[in-house]
Design goal:
Shape of chain A: globular
CATH architecture of the largest domain in chain A: 6 Propeller
Strand order of the largest sheet of chain B: 1-4-2-3
Helix content of chain A: 10-25%
Radius of gyration of chain A: 23 Å
CATH superfamily of the largest domain in chain B: OmpA-like domain
Oligomer: heterodimer
Number of domains of chain B: 2
Structural class of chain B: alpha+beta
CATH topology of the largest domain in chain A: Neuraminidase
Number of domains of chain A: 2
Shape of chain B: rod-shaped
Largest sheet of chain A: 6 strands, mixed
Number of helices of chain A: 4
Largest interface: A-B, 37 and 23 residues
CATH class of the largest domain in chain A: Mainly Beta
Number of helices of chain B: 4
Order of helices and strands of chain B: HEHEHEHE
Chain lengths: 431, 188
């Protein structure tokens, strides 16, 4: 009886944990004419049942892009798993533009063989296979979705990626409760990396996606930590007087840009991760903060109020030259640069409201992407297509996402608490 | 002859008596003088003791008055600190100290000048603007209070500053009524 009660308690606790941390992703606005695509259930060659419904995961991924409208399984007239079993007229009859079929086999690893068919033309467009560990079945399915997405849109997919975010349960009677969570890009498989009653801030990814860095107030002062995802091993990198903030890895992974105020006021520093040597970059009595790397690693963008109001500046690492980047509006801050080195997602204030905007470094044009008023912490998907950010809904922060072209919009409701500071992982697999 | 002899005898007796009496009267005088000296000394000692006691009493009264004044002053300072509160408020995106904040900090400074306590100044912002910029802004506010305290004579080593940015709001709602409560420095 005691044991049963104990396990019941454990089950309830685990259940609560998942409920707190798990996100759903909903398309709130897709494109006008999404492409109809049918993903037929995949065949399974292995012992027992398939560990996951691979076709379902791929189907959901494509739907979540907002650019495709998947065909419901109930409407399918046949369920082919081989090329020879396809009757294109069955798919034309239900207005599917494309058809995906596949087969999953389990040996030491999982292997998915799949094919994309053009229903209108009645031809096989593309075949491919993905191999991955059995324990990462869902990631294997996401990688198939990535390959299909790239074939269909010309843009690499970013489904086989992960999200890092901070969730906060408010406690008006005492201290709030903070959790740092990593989950798959579809919100599934959330894992709590750190939790406690002290603030957790500014989470970011290492370029190989194997480590994360963040600020924790657990010592009653802010300090920067890095943590290895696979082992949970943690290292405290800084604990100086004053601010210890905004850790961001250099693209080559050897250095970290961060913000310290130990010398009087917030400035940008570089920390060499091997030697732990610290180099001061900016030297200004204004606030210099929120550094972010250009993808070539040759310069950094950062926020400074040296002109009176927060604006984005660029620091060139070779020359040490600093120049102002943004001029439109009174408030531009917390920049994140897309992998193309051209689009910069940032927080832009207009009419007293804080929106997510994209600034094009080449055309120097700023485009506001969001209509809500307290938007912050933008992070760009590694394929450059979508910006995830946090916004305020009532008393809570929630995650939302918007396509960089402003078309498709998503909401990522959490079951409870506030969710903030999303950080999209780099691409975790190179095919 | 007899007469003469008798007279002579009487004279001798009288003389002797006189001598004797003279002798005895010298002794008494000495005794009296000694007694008098003793009495004076005792009187002096008593007066001295009385004076000492009076001085002691006066001193005690003065000390008590001083203690009371000190306690009153402490009470007054405590009351002033209490009246001033432990939270100083700021305008939007500003770390400038207003008159109210200065007056409130003055009360804390007076208290700190009379003791050796250390304080922790926690800077906070409202939720508008980015989290990391707000951490810097919260620090700027805490530093503004610290600098004012140091300028008023409090040694810098007794003041610790920390910023929580927008992470620890007092009021959770969105809107100026919540925001103005959240833009603050708390002294702890």
């Amino acid at each position: 009886m005691q044991t049963i009660r104990f396990w019941l308690l454990v089950a309830i606790m685990l259940g609560c944990n998942v409920a707190h941390a798990q996100l759903e992703i909903l398309v709130t606005r897709g494109i006008d004419n999404p492409t109809a695509i049918a993903v037929a259930p995949f065949a399974w060659d292995g012992l027992g049942g398939a560990p996951e419904d691979f076709a379902q995961i791929i189907d959901s991924d494509l739907a979540r892009s907002g650019q495709f409208s998947p065909v419901s399984r109930r409407d399918m007239l046949s369920l082919p798993t081989e090329k020879s079993e396809i009757y294109y007229r069955d798919w034309r009859a239900i207005s599917a533009r494309y058809l995906v079929i596949g087969r999953v086999s389990q040996g030491v690893q999982l292997r998915v063989d799949y094919a994309l068919h053009d229903v209108e033309r009645g031809t096989e467009l593309f075949t491919g296979s993905i191999v991955g560990p059995v324990s990462e079945a869902r990631m294997v399915a996401h990688r198939v979705a990535d390959a299909l997405y790239e074939k269909l849109t010309g843009i690499p997919g970013a489904f086989a990626t992960r999200l890092l975010y901070v969730s906060v349960t408010r406690n008006p009677e005492g201290k709030d409760f903070y959790r740092l969570t990593v989950a798959d890009s579809d919100g599934r498989r959330p894992i709590v990396l750190l939790e406690g009653r002290d603030p957790i801030l500014a989470p970011s990814w290492s370029p190989d996606g194997k480590q994360v860095a963040y600020v924790s107030f657990e010592s009653s002062r802010p300090a920067i930590f890095r943590q290895v995802l696979a082992t949970g091993e943690r290292e405290q990198l800084t604990n100086f007087m004053g601010l210890n903030n905004s850790p961001v890895w250099s693209p080559d992974g050897t250095q970290m840009a961060l913000v310290l105020s130990k010398d009087g006021n917030p400035d940008i520093y570089l920390l060499d991760l091997a030697s732990k040597q610290l180099t001061r970059l900016t030297r200004h009595y204004a606030i210099d903060t929120e550094p972010t790397w250009m993808p070539d690693g040759k310069s950094l963008l950062f926020t400074s109020d040296r002109g009176g109001r927060p604006q984005i500046y660029r620091y060139d690492l070779m020359s040490g030259k600093q120049e102002r980047v943004t001029f439109e509006g009174r408030y531009n801050a917390r920049a994140r640069v897309a992998q193309d080195g051209r689009n910069v997602a940032l927080v832009h204030q207009r009419g007293g409201k804080f929106h997510i905007a994209v600034y094009d470094l080449i055309s120097e044009r700023l485009t506001i992407l969001t209509e809500t008023s307290l938007d912050e912490s933008p992070s760009i998907a590694p394929n450059g297509s979508v910006v995830i950010y946090s916004t305020k809904q009532g008393d809570k922060s929630v995650l939302s996402a918007v396509a960089v072209d402003g078309g498709v919009r998503f909401s990522l409701p959490a079951r409870s608490g506030s969710v903030q500071e999303p950080a999209w992982s780099p691409l975790l697999f190179s095919e | 002859m007899t007469m003469k002899n008798t007279l002579g005898k009487i004279t001798a007796v009288v003389l002797m008596a006189a001598l004797i009496s003279a002798c005895s009267s010298n002794d008494a005088k000495e005794q009296a003088a000694a007694q008098e000296a003793e009495r004076v000394a005792a009187e002096q000692a008593a007066a001295e003791a009385q004076k000492k006691a009076a001085m002691q009493a006066a001193e005690d009264r003065a000390r008590a008055a001083e203690m009371k004044a000190k306690r009153d002053e402490e009470k007054r300072m405590m009351a002033a600190v209490e009246a001033a509160g432990s939270i100083f408020y700021f305008d939007y995106d500003s770390s400038a100290l207003g008159d109210d904040a200065r007056a409130a900090i003055d009360a804390h400074v007076a208290m700190m000048m009379s003791n050796n306590d250390s304080v922790r100044l926690e800077g906070h912002t409202d939720e508008r603007g980015t989290r990391e910029y707000n951490l810097a802004l919260g620090e700027r506010r805490a530093n503004a209070v610290r600098d004012y305290m140091v300028a008023s004579g409090v040694p810098a080593y007794r003041i610790e500053t920390i910023s929580y940015g927008e992470e620890n709001p007092v009021a959770y709602g969105s809107g100026e009524s919540s925001y103005k409560q959240n833009r603050r420095v708390e002294i702890k």
